Amino acid sequence: MDVLWMIPLLLLMIIPLLMCTSSTFVFYFKKFFYVAWMMVLALIGIPLCILKSGGRDIENMRIIRFMVRHVKYLLGLRFEVSGWEHLQTEGPYVVISNHQSSLDVLGLMEILPDRCTTIAKKELIYAGTVGLICWLGGIVFINRKKTSDAKSVMADAAKTMLDDQIRLWVFPEGTRNQNGDLLPFKKGAFHLAVQAQVPIIPVVFSSYSNFYLRKEKQFKSGIIRLKILPKIETKGMTSDDVASLSDKSFDLMRAAFLDISDSITRSNGPVRH
Ligand SMILES: CCCCCCCCCCCCCCC(=O)SCCNC(=O)CCNC(=O)[C@H](O)C(C)(C)COP(=O)(O)OP(=O)(O)OC[C@H]1O[C@@H](n2cnc3c(N)ncnc32)[C@H](O)[C@@H]1OP(=O)(O)O
Ligand SMILES: CCCCCCCC/C=C\CCCCCCCC(=O)OC[C@@H](O)COP(=O)(O)O
C-alpha cells in the first residue's frame, strides 16, 4: 500500500525532470495531454450541451468554444489575431482556412463566430467523447472516400445554411498538411458558397513549424498568427465560376500564409520543413 502511494509522488518528480531535459518527452507529453484533456472537456461538455439544447444544435458550439479557449495556455501557445472586422458580416457565410494539425481546433475556437460549425471527416464521430460533442455541436460529417455522398451532404448543408442562418467552416485542403505551403484546394467549399450564394471568408493560420515539428518530435511554446481576410462575394456566380473562385481564394490565402509565417520566422528563427 505504501509503495502505491509512492507512484504519483515519483511521477511528480520524474515528469518535470524529463520536461526539462528531453524535448521528445515534451512532445509526447503535450500531445497526450492535449488529446486526454479534450476528451475530459468533452465528457464535461456533453451533459451541458444536452441540458442546454436537448440534443444536436449549433448553439452548443458556444459551450464548446467557451470550454476550449483556455487550452492554448496549457500548451504554451498564444494567438495574434488580425482582421476581426471581416468577421462582422451579417447572415450565413463559409469560412475557409488552411489545416496543419488537430491544434487548428484551438485557433478555430479562438475566433469561431456565433452560429458557425464545421465540416469534418466522418471518422471523427468515432473519437469517443470528442466525437459525441462534435455531433452535438452540429458538425457536418462527410465521407471523403465517396465524392457523391460528400457532395450530397454539402448540397443539404447549403440549404440548411440559408434555412437556419448558419455559417460553416471548411478546410479546403481536405487533410492536415505541414509541408510549409498550402495543398491544392478541393472544390467542396466553393460549390457550397456558390450554391447558397453566400460570401467566403478566408482565414489563414501561420506556419506551426517554428514550434511544432511532427517528424523532429518537437512541441515548444509559440505564437500562431491568425489572419482573417476580407470576404469574397459569390452573388450571381454559378458552378462555372467555382474553379476561378477556388484559384482566387488559394492565391490570396497562400500570399497571406507566406507573409505571416515569414514574419514569425524572422522573429523566432527559421522555418524547417
Ligand atoms: C470540449 C472539447 C471539444 C472538442 C471539439 C472539437 C471540435 C472539432 C472541430 C474541428 C473539426 C475539424 C475537422 C477537419 C476535417 O475533418 S478536414 C477533412 C474533411 N473536410 C473536407 O474534406 C473538406 C474539403 N473537401 C472537399 O470540399 C471535397 O471537395 C469533397 C466534397 C470532400 C470531395 O472530395 P474530392 O472528390 O476529393 O474533391 P474534389 O474537390 O476534387 O471534387 C471532385 C469533383 O466533384 C466536384 N464537387 C465537389 N464538391 C461538390 C459539391 N458540393 N457540389 C457539386 N460538385 C462538387 C468538384 O468540382 C470536382 O469536379 P470537377 O473536377 O470540378 O469537375
Ligand atoms: C475511442 C478513442 C479514439 C481516440 C481518438 C482521439 C481523437 C482526438 C481527440 C482529441 C483531439 C482534439 C480535437 C481534435 C479534432 C481534430 C480533428 C482533426 O484535425 O481531424 C483531422 C482531419 O481534419 C483531417 O484528417 P487527416 O489529416 O486526413 O487524417
Automatic annotation (TrEMBL):
Reactions this protein catalyses: 1-(9Z-octadecenoyl)-sn-glycero-3-phosphate + (9Z,12Z)-octadecadienoyl-CoA = 1-(9Z)-octadecenoyl-2-(9Z,12Z)-octadecadienoyl-sn-glycero-3-phosphate + CoA; 1-eicosanoyl-sn-glycero-3-phosphate + (9Z)-octadecenoyl-CoA = 1-eicosanoyl-2-(9Z)-octadecenoyl-sn-glycero-3-phosphate + CoA; 1-(9Z-octadecenoyl)-sn-glycero-3-phosphate + hexadecanoyl-CoA = 1-(9Z)-octadecenoyl-2-hexadecanoyl-sn-glycero-3-phosphate + CoA; 1-(9Z-octadecenoyl)-sn-glycero-3-phosphate + (9Z)-octadecenoyl-CoA = 1,2-di-(9Z-octadecenoyl)-sn-glycero-3-phosphate + CoA
Transmembrane segments: 32-51, 124-142, 192-213
Pfam families, per the entry: Acyltransferase
GO cellular component terms listed in the entry, alphabetical order: endoplasmic reticulum; membrane
Phospholipid/glycerol acyltransferase domain span: 93-208
SUPFAM superfamilies given in the database record: Glycerol-3-phosphate (1)-acyltransferase
UniProt keyword annotation of Magnesium present: no
A molecular function (GO) term: 1-acylglycerol-3-phosphate O-acyltransferase activity
Pathway given in the UniProt record: Phospholipid metabolism; CDP-diacylglycerol biosynthesis; CDP-diacylglycerol from sn-glycerol 3-phosphate: step 2/3
GO biological process, one term: phosphatidic acid biosynthetic process
This enzyme's EC code(s): 2.3.1.51
CDD domains documented for this protein: LPLAT_AGPAT-like
Keywords from the UniProt entry: Acyltransferase, Lipid biosynthesis, Lipid metabolism, Membrane, Phospholipid biosynthesis, Phospholipid metabolism, Transferase, Transmembrane, Transmembrane helix
Function: Converts 1-acyl-sn-glycerol-3-phosphate (lysophosphatidic acid or LPA) into 1,2-diacyl-sn-glycerol-3-phosphate (phosphatidic acid or PA) by incorporating an acyl moiety at the sn-2 position of the glycerol backbone.
Family in the record: Belongs to the 1-acyl-sn-glycerol-3-phosphate acyltransferase family.
Domain free text: The HXXXXD motif is essential for acyltransferase activity and may constitute the binding site for the phosphate moiety of the glycerol-3-phosphate.
PANTHER family: 1-ACYL-SN-GLYCEROL-3-PHOSPHATE ACYLTRANSFERASE
Protein name: 1-acyl-sn-glycerol-3-phosphate acyltransferase
Source species of the chain: Pundamilia nyererei
